[in-house]
Amino acid sequence: MNKVHLKQILENYLNRFEEMNMQAHGSSEWHKWRMAQAFRAMMNRALSATDEAFPAELLQVKKLTEDLIDGPMQPFYGLCRIAEKAPEEVRDLFCKLLQAEDDGNLVIRSERVHDFIAGSNRLCEQQFPKSYLYKNNSHSVTCYLGLYDPTHNYIFKATEAKNFACYVGFSDDWGAGQNFHLDAYYRMCDQLVAVLEEDASFLTKWKAHWANLPVKQEALYSDQQHHLLAYDIIYASTHYKLVPGIDERPARKSPAPQRTVDIEALKSSYEAAAQREKERQQAEAYVRQVLVAGVKFHHKRYGVGVIQQVSASQLAADFPEGGRKNLDLAVAAANGIDEVDGVTDFAKRIGTVRSVLQQSVEIQRDYERTLKAYHEVMENADDVS
Question: What is the pLDDT of residue 350?
């Protein structure tokens, strides 16, 4: 590695630590350590749950990871939805990825990553045959590994890793897609960790910053091997532009005027659809926050019921006169449920998002369509997750 360039990155990382980790600046990268502290126990609880409870437990793990894994493609949320109909298959995928022994053999582990991607995307094709969403890739799967066992794994994100490698002079090629080589990427991360552990001054300053975070230290993963720190440095180098020009790419050839208009129109359509999709996700997040197991509510058609279970898109509730009902979460909240015990403003809050919930399926489909169209004409979109 080019240690002069790496030193520049590390200096800027320390200088901008507060910006990257204090919510007053709109950033809180320390959440990765909070996720890693809880992820393994929550995932193990999900994997040991019954088939009936598994989707809801998996959804709780997905919520923990916020937007670290799920970007526009929503791969983790997609697995939560697939688990509603195929719990055994989704459970098996995660067990083979996270719990199989490989004695540190990264070639075998890399095969597990490819097997998970192929298996999850096959299930996605079966459950959502016309959907452009929910596809897993090397980023999402290394997140599962990196949060479950940070001691032996690193999180990977293609563009950020490529930019970092170019700047520090790491020349090994880890490939992409089906040709992604986990061992090559891990070699770069191992070299970065070795530099960090040789730099006592950097670690002392970093620990001093770390002690001032607005969170109890016991809520954060200890990261004694500095694997999460290594990923955070790689990610921050591009995301926060720790080195001027680190994310600059060669200029593209000027497109024909008509093509420029088409791309701008597609971008505008995509951004509008993405905003509607964000509103849908926020509305459904509120519904899942309020409608949890054990809560009593009133349904216009079925009367008083008690929620037994909530998954990504459904809730199961018992009604004294109607028995167990499985209801679509968004539809029930928008059209059926008018009172929830302990939530005095439920009807008012739902009133502000009712149209979004009622159009939930259409909003998702429109988002998928525009996302697919937009990315088909854009370059360098191979690591969108």
Answer: 95
